[in-house]
Every structure is written in structure tokens, then in C-alpha cells.
Amino acid sequence: MAEPILSIEGVSFRYPNQSDYAVQNVSFTAERGEWLAIVGHNGSGKSTIARMLIGLLRPERGAIRLFGRLLNDATVWEVRRRVGLVFQNPDNQFVGATVEDDIAFALENNGIPRSEMVERIREAIRQVHMEPFLHYEPHRLSGGQKQRVAIAGILALRPDMIILDEATSMLDPRGREEVLETVRRLNRQQRITVLSITHDLEEAAKADRLIVMNKGEVMAEGTPEQIFRLGSKLERIGLDLPFAVKMGSRLREQGIPLRAGYFTTEELVEELWTLYSKK
Amino acid sequence: MDIVFEKVEHVYNARSPLARRALYDVNVAIRSGAYVAVVGHTGSGKSTLLQHLNGLLQPTSGAVKIGEETITSNKRPKQLKPLRKKVGVVFQFPEHQLFEETVEKDICFGPLNFGVPEDEAKRKARELIKLVGLSEDVLAKSPFDLSGGQMRRVAIAGVLALEPEVLVLDEPTAGLDPRGRKEMMEMFYHLHREKQLTTVLVTHSMEDAARYADEIVVMHEGTVWGHGTPEEMFRDADKLAAIGLSVPETVKLKQQLEKRFGVVIPSPCLTLEQTAEAIQQLFSKVSVHD
Amino acid sequence: MTNHLIIGQYVPGHSVIHRLDPRAKLLIVFAYVLIVFLANNAATYALLSLFALAFAALSRIPFSFIARGLKPILWVVLFTLLLHLFMTKEGDVIYQIGALSVYEGGIKQGIFISLRFLLLVLMTTMLTLTTTPIEVTDGVESLLGPLKKMRVPVHELALMMAISLRFIPTLMEETEKIMKAQAARGVDFSGGRFSERMKAIVSLLVPLFISSFKRADELATAMEARGYRGGEGRTKFRQLAWKPVDTVFLAAVALLAALLCLLRS
Ligand SMILES: Nc1ncnc2c1ncn2[C@@H]1O[C@H](COP(=O)(O)OP(=O)(O)OP(=O)(O)O)[C@@H](O)[C@H]1O
Ligand SMILES: Nc1ncnc2c1ncn2[C@@H]1O[C@H](COP(=O)(O)OP(=O)(O)OP(=O)(O)O)[C@@H](O)[C@H]1O
Ligand SMILES: [Mg+2]
Ligand SMILES: [Mg+2]
């Protein structure tokens, strides 16, 4: 097995002047090109983890390794170049006066020569399909468009990993789909590792692997199939289940002998059809 | 209170180079006691529509009738306060409106503005804090020491404290986790039933619209695209898809089943329970034929 | 609300004035503001006015639009005019209303001073009408560049200015939202007793402060996450390019100054 691109080992964190740990003894890894989803109730420590991963917060205990190197003061700037973080609020992460200025911001910070910037900005804006908006000010963009600009800002640095911290939760369904589709494409085509923090279980169901947080700790980790098998255990900690899973278990309760282990409506229909035709 | 929109148009920054028409030719009637969901793509005019319900915005042409009151472009009730008391509005991210030192004061703020005596306002605050699912000892705390979800509940209690007849909700569950979302929607539904409120809910969740609403108003590019029962509105998934909207997962399942099985499922399949029932029937029919 | 006040508003365009280097425009306007004070007779004022009018005409912004924007300051101009009309007692008496007499010097002074004020406002308005806020910021940063050696945090100041400008529309939107939310809770922002009005203002300002702090905090975090660590080692995307036409315009101002010196009495 290849060396993981990210590994965090026994990490704990407490905010200043707080007695409770926001994150406690958390460990997990991510492989290159993987799509990892982190789910958990409000306040379960998801954003805290994201912030630690790019050195915005420093763990009280434990170690974070990225690209085979320990995250510390010496490596933090390189990590911030290679790992992009998209936050929840589209407005509060738009620094530039216009779209191109915003994309340029991180390039400027990293001392990229101006001639190269122009090239990279053009390339990044194309990847998020926002070419016509290059000179727009933020107040003329929708939330989803702003989030795509944020992603372009990250892409311009040619990152290895993108972290989405509920980046779609303030968007309408279409805006959400646009953003996710963009990230999915990057994940597939450029093998950019994705760590997606989300409350949307339908989205989580499409991840390669899921991490379930509960009160600052990792409660479970595994493929969507393994995780959704936990069923009502997830509902007890404030989470939802994908529709097909909920429907399936409801039907089983009613005595329809369905198999478990599918998360999409399409799969459920097939499963029902198989049963139906056997009768 | 019946609400009627007649040919309502709203232009922001009218008569200026920045003019922008957000609503036009809106004709909607909402009967007293109904639960109405308003859905539509971003920028379709939902929030603009809502703000006409309590005179925060005035139509630039046409008329809005709310109970006895009529608001037109050049006429509005001299006193908007009575109207604002009858129509409570919970805006998106209502926790941003909190400002008092204690939760109790914040909940009482609205009623006091409308001239409710202080001890009665306080009594109401105690009653409401439980209704929104928080404990009474929260009342003495500063609203800014609470978690996001708790702050949202306090803000909602502050609107409910006006004892409105019409409750207007603009995406009240955005940003909450699934459990928080479900609890909150159930709470509004409970209130709707118990206090016989007229409820107008703006939502992006077709599931919530299908589950709770008696009627759905579909907005598209500034005007009403469709208005009917959930069953009627969700009948044609393709047409909705064309304006950027989807149907609830249950309806998707129903439609896929109908296609795969080559049958017609009579149930509208608006909720999980209904759909499970319908599938059960599908299967039992087979057993009968055996 | 903002419709009538065009000062500080950018009007997109591609005129020669729009395309001038912001540094050139800043220097032109700055120099103009200084040399306005050289004028002291009809010839010099005529010259200054001519220059300002030519500048405005070259911007291709409809004159009616500029005039409409200047309207709000007309009463200030009028007031200056009247003040000088009655206060300056020089030359012959031209007109007498009761105890008030208007002198020739008064008329002259009044017209000159209000014209001076009008020209100042016109030229600074032309700057903001034809230059985006971010260009102004870039221009200021570049012009103040030499101060970096004196440890003045020019880069930080410029960034601060750019971010404030970027957030003005956002804050205005936010203000409107909070006002509406409080209005729905029975707050009347337009009237009421003093204590009620104070309460109304508090109910607006507290949420506005809190959300601004939160925004500032989130923005700072986002900037750090994107690798911001001060001006050191930073490259710049926006680059200013000084063109021959910029030199020509500056030369025109120098010429104007020379002519004013010659023609003033
Ligand atoms: N700046 C802070 N100071 C003190 N405590 C904090 C701070 N930020 C978060 N916390 C606390 O740390 C815990 C974890 O918060 P975190 O933001 O990581 O949760 P989350 O899983 O991202 O939640 P959400 O789904 O609401 O975004 C919570 O109990 C929260 O109240
Ligand atoms: N205060 C305002 N000034 C100018 N234009 C506005 C204002 N508020 C909204 N608009 C414009 O009016 C149109 C309708 O906006 P509205 O907020 O009603 O949409 P919405 O359906 O609520 O969208 P969303 O789902 O994003 O909340 C949009 O084009 C918007 O840009
Ligand atoms: Mg979070
Ligand atoms: Mg809205």
C-alpha cells in the first residue's frame, strides 16, 4: 500500500479557556486521490480538525503528517500551498476586489511571478467554468459562484488536496451541485485528494470512505456501506441516513425481505425489481 | 387571515439606473390556516415575495391584501405595527438579529415594542423557551454564549412571542445538522396545527415541502410558475427540472418504480410512510396473483 | 439613498481618462487641488475651469450625470457665495438692501471662492468616477512606496483599504437585512420617542458589530489559510504601467501651473 498523503495520529485539541476537548484522540489517514467525507452533528469537532490540518490551530497532543512530513512551523507554509481549504461562508473568504484578484491572492502570497500568475489564473478559472466572470466584483456573484472562485483560488496553486468545510451548506441545490461536480471532476481527473466535511448524507454516500464524528471523537470509520449499516446508531447521534437506506430499512420492517447495502434510489429500485420478479 | 396578491410587481431601486425587477404579475391567494411552501431557484423572488406579507416592501404596482389591510404602491396602512404583529417573519439566519444582554430580554423585545406589559412578556418568554426546545435556565444567559443552533431557537422564540396569526419562515433550517433540521420543522408544524397559524415556508428542500405543506407555490424568474397541492406540483419532474428544481426522493423512487415495473402507482408518494405503503401494496398484489 | 450621491461611485468606461494610470490621475488631481489656490483673477479662473471641463469631457461621462451628482453640494456653494457677497467690503457699492450693502469686491470674491470649491469637488469626483477603488488603492500604494524604507507599513495599509472597500456593499446589505428583521419585531427606525430611537439604533448596531467581527475573524482565518503572511516576499498581480499619455497629462498640469503663475495678478 502506498504511503498515505495524510495521517493524523491521536490528535486532541482544546480551545483556550475551555475545559472540554473539542477534538479528542482522533486518528485517520487519507490516500492520494481518495474522497474522504467527515460527518457529524453540529459542534462535533469537524471544523476544528480542518483547521488543524493546515496549521491554523495546533493540536495539544498527537501528530499530523502531510505528504510524509510532520506538520510544524517549518512545513506549515508548504502545507498551505498544497492543501486548499474552502470555508462555509462564501462572502467571508472572498478577499479580492474582483474574481481575478481573488484568485491571484494566494499566488501573490506565495511569490509566484506575475507572468506566471496570468497563465495560472486563466487555467484555474477555466477549470471551474467561470471564464465570463473574471472581472466581476463579489457582490455581483451568487453564493455558488463565489465558492467556485474560492476553489479556483486553490487550483491556481496546483494543490494536492482540497478540504471542503461545509462549503456547500449555504447554497441552493443547484449551486451545491455545481460546486460538488467541479470538485468531483478534479478528484477524478487530477487525482486531487478531497476531504469533505458535510451534513449532506447523499453527498457522503458517494465518498470512498466516511469518518463519523461524535462529540469530538471518531465514532466510526469505513466505506459508506459499512457506515450506513450502523443504521439507527447514526440517527441516535443526530445524523441522517441516505434516503434509499431509510426506505430500505422501513420496507424490511414491513416484511419485504430486502438485502442491505445500497445507498442510491437506482440500486433500491433494482433490488426491489429482483425481489418482485422472483415472486 | 386570508392573503391575496393581485398583479404584484416589485422593482428594486425603481426609477434609477440600478433598477431591477424582482417580481412581476404575481397572483396568489393564501387562505387562512393553510401551510404554504414557496420553492424556486436562487434569485427567483421568494424572499422579495415574503417581505410583502408584512409591509417591509411595498409593491411597485398591484395590490397585496392581508386580512383587512390593503397595500398598494401608493397606499399603505398608516400604522404598519398592527400588521407586523399579526405577521411574524423568521428571516434566514435569524440568530443574526439577537442583541440583548439576556435571552429573556431578547425574546421580550418584540412584545414590548408592541406594547405588551412586561410581566406578561416575561411569562410568554418562559413558555416559549420550552416550546422551542430549550430549558428555562437559558433565559438568564447571554444569547452570545449559546451554540449556533440554540441561538437560532432563541431568535425564533422572539418572533413567536409576537403571537402572530401568520408565520413566515425564510429557509429556517439552513446550516443545521439533520437532527436539528428535523426537530425544527416538526416544531413549526406542531405550532401550525396547535395555534391554527397560517404558515408560509420558503425552502429548498422538496422533502419538507412535500411533507408539511398543503400547497406549494413555485416561483420562477420573478413570477409564479405554478401553484397547487404537492401532489399536483410534483407530478411532472421533467418540467420542474427545466427550471432547476427537483422532486422529492420519494417521488423519484415512485417514478423509477413505475418505469421499471411498468405499473402505475396511484399513491402520490409524498412521504416515506406513504411510499412504503405503496410499495407494500405493489408486492401484496403480486402475492394475490400467485 | 445612494442614488443621488455620485461622489465615490465608479462609472465603467474606456475613455482616455479611464485608462490613465491611477498614479497619474492621483498626481493630476492632487496637483490641481494645490494650484487652484494660485488663481486670483478672471483669466486664471477661466483657465482652471477650462482644464476641468476638458478633463470631464474627455472622460465621456454624460455631463448631465456629473451635474446631477454635484447638485447635493450646490447649497454649500450657494452659502459660500452669499457669505462672501455680504461679508467682503471692498470696491464700490453695487447694490443696497436696507442695512446690507453689496460691494463689487464681494461679488468677485463670492464667485471666485464658490467656483474654486466647485472645481475642487468636480476634479476629485472625476477621479473616483473614472477609477475603480482598487486602482485608487494600487495607485496610493505605489506612490507611497518610498515610505516603506521609513518602516511605514504601506502594503498593509493598502490591503486594509482594499478590503474595506471590498466589504462596503456586503455591509450595506447586512445593515438592510438587520433593519428589516428588527422592523418585523416592531422596531420603528423612522420616528418615535428619543428612548425608542436609541433602542432602535442599539438593535441595529449590536448585531452589525457582532457580524462584522465574525466576518473579520473568518476573513483573517481564510487569508492565513491561503498563505498570507504580510508583504514580505509577496508578488503583485496588479501592475501599473506608466504610458506616454500619462506623462502628457502631467505635463499639461505643469503647463497649467506655469500659466497660472504668469497670469495671476
Ligand atoms: N473559537 C472557539 N472558542 C471556543 N470554543 C470553540 C471555538 N470554536 C469551536 N468551539 C467549540 O468546539 C467544539 C467543536 O466545534 P467545531 O466548530 O469544530 O464543530 P463542527 O463539527 O465543525 O460543527 P458544525 O457542524 O456546527 O460546523 C464545539 O463544542 C464548539 O462550541
Ligand atoms: N435589496 C435588493 N436590492 C436590489 N436587488 C435585490 C435586492 N434584494 C434582492 N434583489 C434581486 O431581486 C431578485 C430576487 O431576489 P430574492 O432575494 O427575492 O430571491 P430568492 O428567491 O429569495 O433567492 P434565494 O434563494 O437566493 O434566497 C434577485 O435578482 C436579486 O438580485
Ligand atoms: Mg464546522
Ligand atoms: Mg431568499
Notes on the protein architecture:
Chain A is built from eleven helices and ten strands. Chain A has helices at residues 46-53, 76-82, 99-109, 114-127, 143-155, 173-190, 201-204, 224-228, 232-236, 243-253, 265-278, and strands at 6-13, 23-30, 35-40, 61-66, 69-70, 83-86, 161-165, 193-197, 209-214, 217-222. In chain A, strand 7, helix 6 and strand 8 form a beta-alpha-beta unit. Chain A is globular and about 70 Å long. The longest helix of chain B is centred in the C-terminal third of the chain and has 18 residues, at 272-289. Helix content of chain B is 39%, strand content 22%. Chain B has helices spanning 46-50, 81-86, 103-113, 118-131, 148-160, 178-194, 206-212, 230-233, 237-242, 249-261, 272-289; strands spanning 3-12, 20-30, 35-40, 61-66, 69-72, 87-90, 166-170, 198-202, 215-220, 223-228. By secondary structure, chain C is mainly alpha-helical. Chain C has two domains: 2-130 and 241-263, no CATH class; 147-225, no CATH class. Chain C has ten helices and two strands. In chain C, strands 1-2 form a two-stranded antiparallel sheet. In chain C, helix 2 (22-35) crosses helix 7 (133-143) and helix 7 runs antiparallel to helix 8. Chain C is flat, with a radius of gyration of 24 Å. Classes of the chains: A alpha/beta (279), B alpha/beta (290), C mainly alpha (265). Chains in contact: A-B, A-C, B-C. Chains A and B meet through helix 6, helix 10 and helix 11 of A and helix 6, helix 10 and helix 11 of B. Bound molecules: adenosine-5'-triphosphate (2 copies) and magnesium ion (2 copies).
Please state roughly what percent of the residues of chain B sit in beta strands, choosing from under 5%, 5-15%, 15-25%, 25-35%, 35-45% or over 45%. Answer: 15-25%
Distance between the terminal alpha carbons of chain B, to the nearest Å? Answer: 54 Å
- Measured as a percent range, the helix fraction of chain B is 25-40%
As for the CATH topology of the largest domain in chain B, it is Rossmann fold
Report the total helices of chain B. Answer: 11
The CATH class of the largest domain in chain B turns out to be Alpha Beta
Low-confidence runs of chain C: 1-7
Name the structural class of chain C. mainly alpha
Content-based structural category of chain B: alpha/beta
Low-confidence stretches of chain B: none
Q: Order of strands across the biggest sheet of chain C?
A: 1-2
Number of strands of chain B: 10
Shape of chain B: globular
End-to-end distance of chain C = 44 Å
Overall, the morphology of chain C is flat
Protein name (chain A): Energy-coupling factor ABC transporter ATP-binding protein
Domain ABC transporter (chain A): 6-240
GO molecular function (chain A): ATP binding; ATP hydrolysis activity; ATPase-coupled transmembrane transporter activity; cobalt ion transmembrane transporter activity
Main location (chain A): membrane
